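Tokens for chain A. Residues wanted.
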């Protein structure tokens, strides 16, 4: 077989094979597009992995922890409360500090009564706005009173500021 015929046959076969390969590739691409368009997904839908519930529980945890922290800070006297209070005191100068006491009674929860006068003095009680750093009533304490360090303020509101609260058990006082 002459060389010229062999080259011609070789290139003819190559050209035919190459063309038929292109047609096969195109047919394969068309088939894949049709299948992708009409096929039912074989993957299962994604189920919830509990992320929503976890976030809700985390939110509840933070809210509960925030409330507990606030209550603790409030009970330790870091948060002020202004209340109208009945104050018994005599000869109190502006800026002066006095040691005062108040009973832990549910009846005086909304309007505490603080005594800043010595027991020997009779002083008519008067009503003032007082800023308390600490709770003026605690349900968890029975038979107790509070000792305060109170200062008479300059100006009018609040007239007094009471802080450094200490709990005194009435049973231990004697």
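Reply:
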């Amino acid at each position: 077989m002459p060389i010229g015929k062999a080259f011609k046959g070789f290139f003819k076969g190559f050209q035919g094979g190459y063309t038929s390969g292109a047609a096969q590739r195109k047919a394969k691409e068309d088939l894949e597009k049709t299948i992708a368009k009409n096929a039912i997904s074989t993957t299962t839908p994604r189920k919830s992995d509990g992320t929503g519930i976890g976030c809700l529980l985390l939110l509840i945890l933070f809210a509960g922890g925030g409330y507990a922290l606030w209550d603790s800070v409030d009970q330790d006297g870091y948060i002020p409360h202004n209340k109208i209070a009945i104050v018994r005191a005599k000869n109190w100068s502006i800026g002066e500090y006095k040691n005062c006491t108040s009973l832990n009674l549910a009846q005086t929860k909304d309007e505490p009564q603080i005594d800043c006068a010595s027991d020997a003095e009779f002083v008519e009680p008067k009503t003032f706005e007082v800023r308390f750093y600490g709770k003026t009533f605690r349900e968890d304490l029975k038979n107790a009173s509070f000792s305060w360090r109170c200062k008479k303020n300059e100006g009018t509101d609040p007239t007094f500021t009471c802080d450094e609260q200490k709990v005194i058990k009435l049973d231990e006082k004697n």
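The mean pLDDT is 80. The longest strand covers residues 160-169.
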